[in-house]
Design brief:
This protein is mainly alpha-helical and about 375 residues long. About 55% of the residues lie in helices and about 5% in strands. The strands form two sheets. A three-stranded antiparallel beta sheet has the order 3-5-4. α1 runs parallel beside α11 and α7 packs antiparallel against α8. It is globular. The two termini are about 45 Å apart.
């Protein structure tokens, strides 16, 4: 069993006027020497199990899953340079400033790609085929729509710089991709390799990023792969752990840890960073679920004072847990009531402090579940 302190990440291969990096195959056991990994692994597994328990026992968890996905989509897209915030992701494209509509579309494509990939796990195993399907949705109609959506690249790509001559990283040549992706897929499903799921997930994310199999969108699909691995391996009952916010807030360390695998033959630093991300994100996830529970109790107290409007108010809240920004017309449609009835309900909920008008306009106003929305910022 190879020790990680003797790990060789890969080799550089001479191509025409440049050298590409060919990552070593990963479908094999690994053994680490750094005891800190064992300590972090124990804490990460416990933290993830605690988060999973919350996600299983929170009533009507489906109400809140969409917001977790929206936050992940916003964070993972921001790493790639989009300029959006979570409020903008929750309003319609027509209400977005024209110069931000491409960013809005990329965030929503990621939401659709995530939902498609999660639902696909019920039908097919986690595979390159499944990731290609998510990738096709990710680039659909967006800035990368001309970069072979859903297809493994057939040409050389690179990271950083303006060309192959000044690139920061040149992934393997396209001719190597079938063998590398087949090896990665075999590693994902190789039950004979006795390795903790979290360590395996860390290695899979690194390897996917090193291969960079698509012309565009590799970072976002690589981060999606993390959640898919945890769901498929039953580490998560519901898809509630998303690491992109942690990666975004620690962006330099994220890239440096990934790069060190290749440049220093040091996967242990990346694994420790990854496990730290799981610990921190799981803890924040638990805090969010606790805050949601407390807020729902607070809302219940306020709704109880509304008399005959309490039932309709509760129905609206259940819809706004998934879509915490709505205008009056949308609220009327969602509740299947008249515009007048919706407007009266909004007025009552605004007086209680549950809803807040967010535009400042006299017309075309929209309202937000402000305290709830703040939990995801």
């Amino acid at each position: 069993m190879p020790q990680m302190n003797k790990y060789i990440a890969g080799t550089y291969r001479q191509q025409y006027q440049y050298k590409s990096f060919s990552p070593a195959l990963v479908n094999r056991p690994f053994r680490w020497e750094d005891d800190e990994i064992d300590i972090l692994l124990e804490e990460a597994v416990k933290s993830l199990a605690d988060l999973n328990q919350y996600s299983v026992h929170v009533p009507n968890i489906e109400f809140f899953l969409k917001m977790h996905v929206v936050k992940e989509a916003d964070s993972t897209s921001r790493i790639e340079g989009t300029n959006t915030n979570i409020e903008e992701a929750l309003i319609s494209r027509d209400d977005i400033e024209p110069e931000k509509r491409d960013d809005w579309l990329e965030v929503h494509n990621y939401i659709n790609a995530m939902n498609h990939a999660i639902s696909s796990l019920d039908k097919i195993p986690l595979s390159i085929r499944l990731l290609k399907g998510a990738h096709e949705i990710l680039l659909s109609g967006a800035r990368g729509e001309h970069k072979a959506p859903g297809e493994i690249r057939k040409s050389q790509n690179w990271i950083g710089g303006s060309s192959l001559k000044d690139a920061m990283y040149i992934p393997p040549h396209q001719a190597e991709l079938p063998d590398l992706l087949s090896d990665l897929e075999k590693f994902i499903h190789n039950s004979s390799i006795k390795m903790p799921v979290l360590v395996k997930t860390a290695i899979c994310h690194y390897q996917f990023e090193a291969i960079h199999p698509f012309l565009d969108g590799n970072g976002r699909i690589g981060r999606l792969l993390i959640t898919l691995l945890l769901v498929e391996n039953k580490m998560l009952g519901k898809p509630v752990l998303y690491l992109s916010d942690y990666f975004d807030r620690n962006r330099n360390a994220y890239y440096e840890s990934l790069t060190a695998v290749r440049t220093k033959n040091d996967p242990e630093q990346w694994i420790k960073f990854f496990l730290s991300a799981v610990i921190s994100t799981s803890g924040k996830g638990i805090e969010t679920f606790r805050a949601i529970a407390a807020l729902r109790e607070n809302y219940a107290v306020k709704l109880a004072k509304l008399g005959k409007r309490a039932t309709l108010g509760e129905e609206l809240l259940n819809k706004m847990y998934s879509q915490p920004i709505m205008n009056a017309a949308t609220i009327a449609d969602e509740l299947k009531v008249s515009f007048t009835t919706a407007s009266r309900l909004i007025l009552v909920l605004a007086k209680t402090g549950i809803l807040k008008e967010r535009t400042g306009n006299a017309r075309n106003r929209s309202f937000e579940l402000k305290e709830y929305l703040e939990l995801f910022k």
